[in-house]
Amino acid sequence: MPAIVDHDKRREQVASVAYDLVAEMGIEAVTFRQVAGAAGSSTAIVSNYFENKGHLLHEVYRIANRRVMDRLQVAFEQDEDLVDCLSVVLPVTEDNRRTWHVWLAFWGRAHCDEAYRAETARNAGESLALYRRMLARRYRLDEQVDNPQIESLARRLISTVGGVALQCVLAPDDWPLSRLREIIAAEIAILDAEFAQG
């Protein structure tokens, strides 16, 4: 009797191997042969789940986006302090550094490839929506009601977090977690004061 193969799990494993390779070597260096070798399978297995390299790479980009959103969502649902919640996306752990390396590898494609542009926009929209909910909860507002002030503050906060995280990826020794948290906390204090003033 042939072994039962969980195709969804196998596809996910192949994509995860490709994700690791992109994080280590960048997009252009990754081939089906390398992915197959690292996965301990044949190139036929890889091509069974992904019709071409572009299809596989797009899935890698989606994985990076999902992993960060999942971490942030869990921290939010656990009602962590806002600085602690936002810290889960910072590139100060090996997993997060790898995610940021994958993002950097793909962002150059987002301006000239519609599929990457759409995925980037989708992820940015989900992230901003979650930041709005974080601030609405912080200020004891209805998380489901649109609020122009919260929208503006959320955009500033997401820009601060993304900006310091990018600096950390590019110069990790200059940006320890304590410095990143200090800057994020300072920005939150400014946002709090502005919200209080109306």
From TrEMBL:
In the UniProt record, the signal sequence range is none
Q: Please give the InterPro entries that the UniProt record associates with this protein.
A: BetI_C (IPR039538), Homeodomain-like_sf (IPR009057), HTH-type_TetR-like_transc_reg (IPR050109), HTH_TetR (IPR001647), Tet_transcr_reg_TetR-rel_C_sf (IPR036271)
Q: Which residues form the HTH tetR-type domain?
A: 8-68
Transmembrane domains' residue ranges: none
Q: Name one GO molecular function term.
A: DNA-binding transcription factor activity
Cite the Pfam families for this sequence: TetR_C_6, TetR_N
As annotated, the DNA-binding region falls at 31-50
Q: Which keywords belong to this entry?
A: DNA-binding, Repressor, Transcription, Transcription regulation
Q: Which PROSITE patterns match?
A: HTH_TETR_2
Instruction: Quote the protein name from its UniProt record.
Output: HTH tetR-type domain-containing protein
Q: Which organism is it from?
A: Croceicoccus pelagius
